[in-house]
Amino acid sequence: MIIGGLVWLILLLGTAFSILLFLIPMGIALWLSGKFFQASIYGNSIMVSENQYSKVHNIVKDTANNLQLSYIPATFFVSSDGMMNAVAIKFLSKKYVLLFSS
Predict the structure, then answer these.
(1) Contact partners, residue 53, CB within 8 Å, separation at least 6
(2) Are 53 and 77 in contact (CB under 8 A)?
(3) Which of 18, 32, 72, 73 has its CA at 20 to 30 Å from residue 91's CA atom?
(4) Strand order in the sheet with 86-91
(5) Cα distance from N-terminal residue to C-terminal residue, the chain
(6) Among 58, 53, 63, which Cα is nearest to 101's?
(7) Measured between alpha carbons, how far is 54 from 48 in angstroms, rounded to an integer?
(8) Nearest CA to 26 among 91, 34, 13?
């Protein structure tokens, strides 16, 4: 029983170590991809606010109130080639609304 218990303990510790060895790089990769996405959005688009595109900001604010959202999503105008009209994205824990300029 002692030897069997030790074998199970070694197997469990080895499994926990291998899971941690996999989860830590995966967490770092997810964090980095979120930062790259955020840098891409903030660097290649215009954020809708009360100072920029105030009419669109008011529409977004009214729509968020009508939908009873507890937040107003970050809204951006993105330069595009007409592939899409608009998209709502939840990337990791942040929510965005992207309006394509074409």
Answers:
(1) 46, 77
(2) yes
(3) 18
(4) 45-47, 74-78, 94-100, 86-91
(5) 71
(6) 53
(7) 7
(8) 34
- Cβ neighbours for 77, distance < 8 A, ≥ 6 positions apart: 45, 46, 48, 53, 56, 99, 100, 101
Please state, in angstroms and rounded to a whole number, the distance separating the CA atoms of residues 98 and 73: 10
47-56, pLDDT tens digit by residue?
888 898 889 8
Q: How confident is the model at residue 32 (pLDDT cuts 50, 70, 90)?
A: very high
d(CA 75, CA 64) in angstroms, rounded, equals 12
Say whether 37 sits in a helix, a strand or coil.
Answer: helix
DSSP 46-74: EE--SSSSHHHHHHHHHHHHHTT-SS--E
Q: Is the pLDDT of residue 59 over 80?
A: yes
Q: Where are the alpha helices (DSSP H) in 1-102?
A: 2-44, 54-66
